[in-house]
Amino acid sequence: MKKCGLICALLIVGLALPAAASSSRSDDISRIQQSTDIFKDIVDAPDSSFPLDLLQSAQCIAIIPSVLKAAFVIGGSYGKGIVTCRLGEKNVSREWSAPAFVTLGGGSFGFQIGGSATDLILVFRNRTGLKRLLSDKFKIGADASAAAGPLGRHAEASTDLQLHAEILSYSRSRGVFAGISLNGAVFQPDQSGNEALYGNGARSEGILTGKYAAPAEFSPLLAELKKYAL
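Request: output the structure for the sequence above.
Response:
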């Protein structure tokens, strides 16, 4: 039993180290490009079950490529991604902020074993979600209400849980797309990523409120957002 616990601890630490490592400008650009590919693959696919209606009212969208998960009785997950938010107070704004860089980490308990890499999309549905993003960090399900997102090209958040959730979350693993619960995961800024691209002192608050210009590499994702998130 001790041996299993040691293996588990080493595995989770091994996952945590890459996620906690400093980011370079090339890492940031790669993250933007991966996020663009994921968003285009999921949203543009003819058989996609991602509900486009939700994008039209989304205030912020986070994309986290290849969240690494591993579990042996105790589980852990770690990933780095980007988030962008509508600029201005009105829901109808078609202008989106430059991407800020974020990390997601969390643990789970239960009888589980195995590992996987999962792409995540988080839809922040109101301005409260933006306030969460501007904080140092928050825990999904505790500091911010969340629910697995509904499926269907024109699905609506119809259940009481989904109607009141600040965040709707989706995952894609091995080609399978579904809503996913992320309760307990900690979402926080990747300050090293922000400064690597925008310069010393760049923080999520300034990036997500339009004080920094987006890099050219963000243009393809921005075009996708303007196409669907009216």
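Residues 2-228 form one domain.
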